[in-house]
UniProtKB/TrEMBL annotation:
Keywords: Endonuclease, Hydrolase, Nuclease. CDD domains: DUF820-like (cd06260). The lineage of its organism: Bacteria, Bacillati, Actinomycetota, Actinomycetes, Pseudonocardiales. This is Uma2 family endonuclease. It comes from the Bacteria.
Length: 127
């Protein structure tokens, strides 16, 4: 796991309400046999793998150029409401929210304060 993913996972674990689960490197199985394994995800319950409908937030660190374009679209088509795309240098979290079936970038910063999927603060410079 990338060190930045560890920082994000630790922050989410510390702040998540007890009815949500934070998982590290657990696969999400999409219809048609397609699988993505985000570095970190937030879901409604702890499991060994997930369907997209269970995932509230998917976090991918250091995605490839192809992933940067395709991943939010894949998650969006299947109803995952929040996606974070994270780069380590410079440390930046790009926050995407599902709007009308499409993920739209709503913020980009090293320090994120969000209200969904729960109230949280993450600073990727604090590693």
């Amino acid at each position: 796991m990338h060190p930045v993913a560890g920082v994000i996972a630790t922050a989410l674990e510390a702040q998540a309400p007890p009815d949500l689960a934070v998982a590290r490197a657990v696969p999400v199985h999409f219809p048609g046999g397609f699988v993505r394994t985000p570095d970190v995800l937030v879901a409604r319950a702890a499991r060994e793998s997930y369907a997209p409908g269970d995932v509230l937030l998917a976090v991918e660190v250091e995605p490839t150029a192809d992933d940067r374009a395709s991943s939010p679209a894949v998650y969006g088509r299947h109803g995952v409401p929040h996606v974070w795309r994270v780069t380590a240098e410079p440390p930046t979290i790009r926050v995407f929210a599902l709007r009308d079936g499409v993920h739209q970038q709503v913020a980009a910063s090293a320090h994120v304060i969000a209200h969904a999927p729960f109230r949280l603060t993450v600073d990727v410079t604090s590693r």
